[in-house]
Every structure is written in C-alpha cells, then in structure tokens.
Fold this sequence. Notes:
Structural class: alpha/beta
Subcellular location: Cell membrane
Keywords: Cell membrane, Membrane, Teichoic acid biosynthesis, Transferase
Strand content: 5-15%
CATH superfamily of the domain at 12-226: Spore Coat Polysaccharide Biosynthesis Protein SpsA, Chain A
Membrane topology: Peripheral membrane protein
Helix content: 25-40%
Shape: globular
Number of helices: 31
InterPro entries: Glycerophosphate_synth, Glyco_trans_2-like, Nucleotide-diphossugar_trans, TagF_C, TagF_N, Teichoic_Acid_Biosynth
CATH architecture of the domain at 12-226: Alpha-Beta Complex
GO cellular component, one term: plasma membrane
Amino acid sequence: MPLANGNASPKISVVVPVYKVQGYLRACLDSILSQSFQDFEIVAVDDHSPDSCGRILDEYAALDDRVVPVHFEENRGIGKARDAGALKARGEYILFLDSDDTLADGALQAIAERLEVTDNPDILLLNHVRTYWNNRVQASAAGEMLTEAGTDVFTALERPEYLNMFAVVWNRAYRREFYVDDHNFTFTDGIYEDALMVYKTMLTAERIAATDHVCVEYRQRRQGNSMRTPGRKHFGIFEQYARLFQFLDERPHLEPVRALLFERTASHFLFTLAREDRIVPKDRAEFFKLSAANYKRFKPKGFVVPEGTQGTRFQLLERGSYTTYAAVMAAGNTRRQVIQRATKVKTKLGKTAYNRLYRLHLRRPVDENLAVYAAYWNRGVACNPAAVYHKAKELAPNVHGVWIVKKDAVDSVPEGIDYVVANSPRYWEVMARAKYLVNNVNFPNNFVKRPEQVHLQTHHGTPLKQMGIDQQKFPAAAKNMSFVKMLERADKWDLSLTSNQHSTEIWERVYPCAFEAVEYGYPRNDVYFRTTADDVLRIRRELGIEDGKTAILYCPTVRDYQKGYVPRIDLERFCRELGPDYVVLVRTHYFYGADPRLEALQERGLIKDVSKYPVVEDLCLAADALITDYSSIMFDYACLDRPIVTYADDWEVYRKARGVYFDVLSGEPGETPGATATSEDELISVFRSGAWNSDQAAERRAAFRERFVQFDDGNAAERVVRRLFLGEEPSPAVLPLDERTPAPAPAAIAMARIPRQPTGERGLIGA
Length: 767
C-alpha cells in the first residue's frame, strides 16, 4: 500500500480545507481513514483556524503518515486553502471534501472502481446525500441522472443536463494532471466560488464520467455555516457570475449552453434573495436591484423563461421593481404559512411572555449590575455557578448575585446569599432584568433571552456518555425528550465553558448553536488546587473518618435503562472483604431519593451514606481513592491525582443503551483513568492486590489527566469572572500540568506528620 510519504503517489488525494470546525473535524478525518480503499492521502489545510483544528490535524498526522497537514499563518479563505491543498496533492485524482462533511462507507472504493472502468476521465461526478442534525437523510436530486450515465464518458456540451447538478466542487473528483498541470485552475476570492469553478472545469473537461454511489454525506449544519450567515458578503455572487459570463464570451463554442447557465444564474440570484439567513431585510431591495441589472446584462438573445412560478419570478426580476416583486411574493403565501410563521414567533417569545407581570418587567431596562445563578434545575447553590458567584463577590462586588432555587431547597441556601423561589413574582423580575445569567443546565423554555443579556452555560461535567443531539440514537437516553426544544434552549447560550478540548469539541457538535466556547476550566475544581493539608484533615474529621483509615468514595451514575437506584455492589460483602482499615463513602446520583438499604448499612457502621452531603468536592478531598463507573466525577477527581478505579459491570448494556464517546475499560492512554473491574470479585481483588494504587494505575492516570485535566489549575473562576463581569482578557494564563499542585492526599499528609526518627549517630550521643 503506497503511503503518503517519500515519493509515493497515491490514487486519490483528499483535500480538506479546515476552519472553525473543531466539533466536526475528527468525524471528517475518521470517515476518510476508515475507508476500505486505502490508497489515498489527506492534504488538510488549516486556514489559520482560531480554535483547535490545527492541533487536531497535527495529532492525526503524528498517528498516520497519510495525513499531510498544511498550516497557514493567516486566514486566507476556503478557496486559497483548496488551492494550496491541490498544489500539495500528489495523487492521481483530487477530491475536495469540506471539513464538516464526511465520506460515506465505500466511497473511495467506488470512485477507484469507476475511474478504472471509465479509463481515468478528467472529472468523475459523485452522488451525495444531505444529513441533518435530527438524523434525517435526504437523497440528492441528481441520483437518477447519475444512474442513467452508467459508464458513459462525455463532455458538458454533449450532455448539458449534467450542468444542472448541485454546483459544488466536493461532488466530483478531478484528475490532478487535468486540474493542476494542464489548466492550473484556482479559486477566486469570496463565497460562491464553487459555482464558478464547477462550470469552468465542466466546460473545459474533455472526458466526464459519473457514479451513482453515494460518496459524500453533506452535513446541513443547523448553525455555523458561513453560507448561512447573513451579511454583505453574499453580494459577491454577482462578481462570481460576471466571471462566468466573461469565460463564456471568450469561448464562442460554448454558446449552446449559455441559456442554460443563464437560467442557473438567475435562479441562484433569486434563491439567495429569498434566504433570510443570507440577505437581511434592509439589503433585499439593493440585492434585487443588482440581480435585475445582471439579469438584463447577461440575458441571451431569444431566451425563453421557464414555465410556472419560476418563470413568473424571472419576469418580475426583468421588470426590476422590488416593490412589485415583494408584493407578489407576499400574496403567494398561503394561510397555512402565515399561521405557521405566527406560531413560530409566539413560540420564540415564550408562552410566559404573555404573563402580564413578566411582560411588564421585559419592558424595563436590563440591570447592568444584576446576575442570576442556578444549578442542577434549581436544587441549590452548587457546582460551577457557585464557584463563579463567590469569585464574583471578590472581584466584581458591584454585581449583585441572586440564586434561583426550588421551594423545597430554600433551607439549603447558605446564610447571606440572596435567592428567589422559581416562578415567584421576584423570579420573573430578575429573569427579565438580569444582565448576566449563569447556569450549569438550561433555563426553562419560557425564559425569554433578551439581546442585552449574557448567558454563560457552565455545564456540570465532561462528556463520557453521549449528549445533546447524539442521544437521538439511544432510546433510553432520548425518552420523552424534545430535541427541537433542547436546541432552542441552547440557542440562548452566549458562552459555553469547558475544562478540556474533548468537551469543547463535543459541545460544539452536539449543541449546534451559535455560542462561543471559553476554555477556562471548571471553577468548581479550583478547590482541588487551593485546599491545604489542614483543610483535608478537617473535612475527614467532620465526616467521621478515623485517622489511618483509607477512605474510598463510591459514586455510581444514573442508569437511563433502569428505574430507581439499583445497587451494583454488595456493599456488605465489599466492606467485609476489604477489612477494618477501609471506610467506604457511598454517594448515589442526585436523581435518586434516600435508599433504605444504604441507611441500614450505615446504621450498622459498615458504610457512610453521603448521598445528601451538600459539597461533593469535600468528599473528593477526603477520599484516598474513587470508585465510579461512567460518572463525570472521574474527570474532576483526576485533578487530585489520586487513584481512580473504574467499576463497570454493565459496560456492554450501558454502551448500547446510553452511548459513550470512548471506551473507559480499554486501557488505552487517555481513556482509562486507572485500575478496572467488571465484576464484584474483580473489584475486591483490585483492592486486596494493591492494583488500585499500582504503578500501572498511576501511568494510566497520568495519561488521563493530560487529556482531561487540561484547563483546571485553580484559577478557572477568576478567568470566568474577568471575562464575563469585568470585560477583561481572561487571566491568569492556564498553568502547565506539571506546575500545578493538587491538594495533598490523606496518606501523604499522614506520612509527612510522622515524627522523624533520630539518626544513629545522634542516638549514640544521647546514650
């Protein structure tokens, strides 16, 4: 198999321009690298992406020689990135693939086979599908036409109907000698560059073939695609098509296809005008005027307008009156469409916006010095929002913080903290008027996010189990969930806080919204780097942990496929097997209520049930080791650099029912945080043999910490407050991992406090 190094020349070079797609890039690269046909290289061009795309490319290149990264020192645009990739490519064929799209299974094999059958044409046309965030898949309109082509080889003049294919460069493969050596095709600046390139290459090629095999999965991003961002850049379409007609003018033999290409041009103008995500209302009249001018400029003699609605639009465009055009288009709306739009507006406002009190407060100005905090569906003062709140009191004392709590959580609010009960009159006031909104879950659907407000989503864990729209594939996780409403809630985020690059990538992809990722670390984890030995001992005393005992914190997560808490360990046997030198702290998931079995074991002195203990960080600080399964607590506990044991007796069931992003039992660096067990006997053996605290466990933990304890260094809350409340650059900078000092482990504290024995020489002096 030829490799992408030395003088090797692969059959296919896949050119991938890369910019701000860190949530999708791995899927793109994996879809290429996992192809059954292996004679390829990937030329991936980092267009000076401001996120972690460049690092991801280098990571893949270090693992596979076929990945050839190119890094621009400044942003030059997708066209220049493709040009650089084409020049770098060494394959017989060039396939352009956008970095948020993927290759379908068997794509490269199908391409290679069709190239061989058709004797290496200049261009091979490819089939594709559109994929949507809700897992809908839509076939391309060209599928039947591609099937009809069979193994024929033709030119665009012989088969002009193939000029009607979706005009993008990624649904065709180019012979490199034709594309680079013979004609030196290059992209023009700006968007809509695909259309010009497609038509120029199609009209130049002497041999064109096709395959109906679905090769590309064209991702319809809900947000974030540059083509779906409105603005003046879309006016660049006129310059691109002016270049096309100049190209035609210079080649009289192409006159037979001028009318077809003119119709395609006018249709593209009207399509762009109609899209609210491209042309904003205030620019529509001007865009229409330029469209009309270009229509008249390039209209071929004897052009016959198409029949039906499209022909009517063409005639209105030629008349040049935007007022008339807009009136006709508005009149064409059906009653059903009007009702749908009205319903959408009402939904966007939120049903509670019709509540008289809330509407009143929404008319009042936003209070620039008011912040609202909530955590775990209003369960109390906790997690990342709590750490941000306390740091804001220190660094931004002018900002008054108010917590939202449920009625039954009022007693848990610490003295001195201002709070409101959810859905109370004051609740509606602070929700309407607060400048800042901080939560580790979503606010309810009826919350109206005002443009002046800033919403920080802190999250409350690192994703091992699949989240967001990825849950659609797993019935146990998706039951009773509206993903449309979930994304509408996430649309209200302005900032999304992460503690590692893994989370950044996952959140961006599974919540396809317009927020900005802020990689500052989790504020709740600051305590793990700021707690002293005396604090650790104090917490242990408060929990009743005797000196010299090894404390094990057991934190299983919730099972979506089970109802209620189901013990996965015979805790009585486990404690008996470990012996009196160990004490087990058991903390069930907060979704569960009190469990009588745990209460009974605690009454007998076998365990300590800490399920209702208010501060989980204290429990972690007190523990010598953690046992968990798939809970995100493992990522937080890794900050402490103490032993973590993964107990996953239902791994296969959980993986299939809930979905996971990596194999926590694999033993691979960065995936497994320490020793593992899949049965109760194995778990007991892990502790009795000392494997829980072995050198191998420490090596695994080190790799795990390198991947996931990335931005947690004790200063996360300060970075958040400086950015959110003070409008400053986040500081201090994240400390390198080897320069951070976690809170000392209980065993280390005990060793440090053992009085030193006198040396032998001093003993003689005292004799």
